[in-house]
């Protein structure tokens, strides 16, 4: 009897998440090595710090990045500066938090401070950092979309931002693949893309584990109503934090309604949505943007007390 050879699984395609995160996501996203040097950044990150190409950031530490971005600028010229705050204190805190994550080996949510170079403002952000390939992977979400005045400037008529790694298209393809892999396998936040009909086209591993799905096939092509049926097959009636009249169906419908607002307006939406996990219902900051006729979105907990449980609810491979 002939021996049945196992059928090899097709290599995972990171191109959808990679292009969404790199070219369309209106939130800074990055990877760093063990010494704190940037190994990858998305276009939004590049624009926030006033660089023309992502390659200008690669290889720099936070100290070097801040120095390059603020050359000939004084922090006194920036709005929103706290008493005794300096550029050095800003980049120092960023590095300190990276070290906390590397030493603990656990994803952690921080309240950090960053500056918008062209707008000359210093603002607070919710940052989630996780161990990744000996270093870290991180994302920062504005607490208020008004803080990200550059957001709509990044939505191009051709639905594609113009920033690249360099003029080398091969290098740009590598950047998109690398950031897509980091977001898919290392990101300790919910990340997804959907088509115009609200059906999921890609999700990161954190999202899959978050809803209890075994693999992408359990989720791809499904709607929000399908997703909550997987995540809470018995409903959420006994969940802590449930509001009067709130159900898993009403929560899923609100997600879909927000997606539709983004598609119809072709503009980025920052909204507080409701989500549930591990027997609790809580608020999350969601940012959604137009992508490939549908949407790309991320969500992180509003409250760090929720985040302490949520970001550690799944195993993130270092």
TrEMBL record:
<feature type="domain" description="PAS">
    <location>
        <begin position="19"/>
        <end position="66"/>
    </location>
</feature>
<dbReference type="Pfam" id="PF13188">
    <property type="entry name" value="PAS_8"/>
</dbReference>
<keyword id="KW-0716">Sensory transduction</keyword>
<keyword id="KW-0157">Chromophore</keyword>
<dbReference type="InterPro" id="IPR035965">
    <property type="entry name" value="PAS-like_dom_sf"/>
</dbReference>
<keyword id="KW-0675">Receptor</keyword>
<dbReference type="GO" id="GO:0009881">
    <property type="term" value="F:photoreceptor activity"/>
</dbReference>
<dbReference type="InterPro" id="IPR000014">
    <property type="entry name" value="PAS"/>
</dbReference>
<keyword id="KW-0600">Photoreceptor protein</keyword>
<protein>
    <recommendedName>
        <fullName>PAS domain-containing protein</fullName>
    </recommendedName>
</protein>
């Amino acid at each position: 009897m002939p021996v049945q050879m196992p059928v090899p699984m097709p290599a995972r395609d990171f191109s959808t998440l990679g292009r969404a995160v790199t070219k369309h996501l209106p939130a800074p996203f990055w990877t760093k090595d063990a010494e704190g040097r940037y190994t990858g950044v998305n276009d939004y990150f590049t624009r926030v710090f006033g660089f023309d190409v992502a390659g200008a950031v690669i290889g720099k530490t936070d100290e070097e990045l801040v120095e390059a971005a603020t050359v000939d600028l004084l922090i006194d010229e920036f709005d929103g500066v706290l008493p005794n705050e300096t550029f050095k204190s800003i980049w120092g805190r960023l590095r300190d938090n990276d070290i906390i994550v590397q030493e603990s080996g656990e994803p952690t949510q921080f309240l950090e401070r960053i500056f918008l170079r062209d707008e000359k403002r210093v603002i607070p952000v919710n940052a989630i950092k996780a161990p990744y390939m000996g270093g870290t992977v991180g994302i920062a979400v504005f607490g208020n979309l008004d803080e990200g005045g550059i957001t709509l400037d990044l939505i191009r008529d051709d639905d594609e931002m113009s920033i690249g790694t360099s003029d080398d298209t091969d290098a740009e393809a590598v950047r998109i693949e690398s950031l897509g892999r980091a977001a898919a396998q290392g990101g300790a936040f919910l990340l997804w893309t959907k088509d115009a009909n609200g059906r999921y086209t890609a999700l990161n591993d954190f999202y899959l584990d978050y809803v209890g799905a075994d693999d992408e096939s359990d989720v791809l092509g499904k709607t929000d109503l399908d997703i909550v049926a997987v995540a809470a097959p018995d409903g959420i009636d006994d969940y802590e934090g449930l509001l009067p009249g709130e159900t898993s169906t009403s929560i899923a419908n609100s997600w879909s309604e927000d997606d539709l607002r983004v598609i119809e307006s072709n503009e980025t939406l920052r909204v507080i949505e409701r989500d549930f996990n591990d027997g609790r219902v809580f608020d999350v900051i969601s940012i959604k943007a137009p992508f490939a006729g549908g949407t790309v979105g991320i969500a992180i907990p509003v409250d760090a007390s929720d985040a302490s449980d949520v970001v550690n609810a799944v195993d993130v491979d270092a």
